[in-house]
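Sorry to interrupt, but I need a hand with the structure work. Could you write out one complete protein record for me, on any chain you like? Could you add the entry underneath, on a fresh line?
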Amino acid sequence: TQIQALISGAVADTNAAFGRSGISTSIILVHTAEVSYAETGDADIDGPRLVDPNDGYLDDVHALRDEYGADCVSLWVDQLNSGGIGYFPHPSLTGVGASGFSMLRLSNATTLTLAHELGHNLFCAHDRSDAPDAPWADYSYGYVETGGNWQTIMAVTGATYIPYFANPNVSWPGPVPPPPGPTGVAEGSPNPSDIARTINETSYYVANFRPRRILGLPSVLHVDSTAMPGGDGASWATAMSDLGDAVCAAAGSNGAVTQIWVRAGTYTPDRESGDRALSFHLVDGVEILGGFAGGETAADQRDPQLNTTILSGEIGAAGLTDNSYHVVDGAARAASAVLDGFTIRDGYADADPNDGGAGVRVFGVGAPTIRDCRIVDNAGNRGGGVYCAFGASPRFENCRIQLNSALLTTWPAGGGGAHCYVNAHPTFSACEFSANTAELGAGVAMLFGCAPEFADCEFLQNDGGVDGSGGGLYAYGDCDATLTRCVFQNNNAHYGMGIALFFDCDPTVTDCDFVDHNRPTDAEGGGMYVYSTCSPVIEGCLFADNHTLSGGGIVCLFGGAPRLAGCVFRGNVADGDSGAASFYSETQPLVVSCLFSGNSAPFGGAISTWFDTTARITNCSLVSNVATNSGAGIYGYEADPLIENSILWGNHVGVAVDEAAQVSGFNTTPIVNASTVQGWSGALGGVANSGADPVLRDADGVDNIAGTPDDDARLSVGSPAIDTGDDALVPVGAVVDLLGRPRTLGAHVDRGAFEFGVSVGDLDQDGRFGAAELGALAVCMGGPDRSPVAAPPYSLAECLAAFDLDSDGDIDARDVAGLQRLP
């Protein structure tokens, strides 16, 4: 029919315009149908009726779209008060809402109106005079010739149309209308216009608004870079040669393809086009697996370590600058989209909006799984290795993110290894961030409401340069990360060599190590730097052998209420002040059940408090710390530290170990209660304080060097610190001591970080059920209803306290069963 011919012609005209404009995509007509609808002629009425699937108007269009897998739908009408309308995609890029819908007045069928409205479906805007904001990027505008003599397809100024989309690298040859010249303006120039680039970047997302129907595909596709082109991928013998072809086939298989097996080799995402905007896009329900040698018949036969499979952005000349913007893209993908066993390298994300995630980019509702991958040697304006933004929640498992860099030094850039932005909440499990570089968050940067989770991760030798913040991790603006069992070691930055927090960030940091950070010339916060109303919860962490100018372990300043519980600070050095911890200017920290041993600084060998800071130091042990000027234990400068249930012993200024060496300062009045302070004179007042020797087991260990792992500041038998703390001073929630044992084992809480006494399963009071307990259990276990015997050097009462779990007076198999369930 005539209408069918007009439709076919409009499709052909659109594809021809794509081709001559340097756009590497095309449209395919999958279905046409006549629908019943009483046109109003008003785009503001007919358009919303088309988009709404449940309003009783044109609802069958949505069913047809899903049935035929149409990414875009164009409704052609006789009457419309404009030539056509086209809707921008939903920000989630998932094809919901108005995504992919347009309308066209039939009389405009031959005037490239279909191409124009599809341009809107692909995030393209009119020319700048008509469109104040482009939804995709600053260059996503139609172009008008500088003299107003002609305009490209997306422009609407009234000038003569030429059948081109804007592209600064493609010229209009003329002669009519004159003059010849470029059809766009490159990014970096004033008022850039590059619709071709926009469509090349967005076409993948639009092409996945609905699944394409490709029939007859196997469950596994095979890919081999050395294979002859044209393979169907059904076996290694007929493997596809291009991974991009396999990914596209899997995306259109409607769930038939569940895995793609990729043989060792190097694969690029551009499909030999040189197009920087193309990426390897992950596919819901499909595992893309690397590490095959070829010939395997089961996925578990592969060896990614031996058979290196590389996804590379090296698509042009040698060097990074013309490489792929993003090697891998996981936007709008679910957790069932898996990439496993690859090296991802050589991406270069240097241009808006392609300025982050040169290795891997995930944004919007993207939540793919990246497993056993090495993300290396990528560079981007931010997030050189990984970029997660706008609610993205990908999961990275056992990945190494190394040698990546963030190019920009201006805020809010950063994240050499990874950058999390605006409500992103990725998960990193057993990942390594090492040797990445960026001024903000050389390892990881997160900004504005992000809540990533890190478990069993390592942050090693990341470099923030001369003025950097957060050598390992940087957080800004309401970011509440969770870090568990992570190691921060030998990172570099001016502020926070391990972690830097700024403005209302409240992470939870548990069982993490901050060690071996060394920058004594100017660094602040060897382990952590906490700035402006941040209130992290830091529990069970080790801060050891860091060397800075200020705050060898941690610096907290300008408000906030950080909580440090069950932490060890040992062997840290500050050349200015605060060997272990500095609390500055109206900060209100709670430090509970912590050990400070062998730290040193001119002022505040262990802790210093400054300018109206209210530091509450409860049930802590500060032993053998050193200051060359004042306050080897605690130093206050116009701040009054609150010291409760604590032990300050063996801290010395020079050779002095008197009261002033334990706690002193300038214009300070420490508040001390129920504590043991060496050289106690009573001059500081308070209640129930003492200068009696707490009889620590071996404060400087067998090596006689304070601040080393063998230090043992636990209480010995007969210590006057046992049961002499004030129970009312124990903070809410402080239910365990430094070793994780009950905070109160006797009649009252003990002073210091360690509780004395035997607890369930812990005979030698080292916080665990180990070799000592096994040996003693074999001796004292008598069986049901039999009196146990002592296991010297432990008394019978101690054995019963440790092993008689059911409190029936014997030690038998039921007790052993309970001991086996102890953590």
In short: DSSP finds ten helices and 63 strands in the chain.
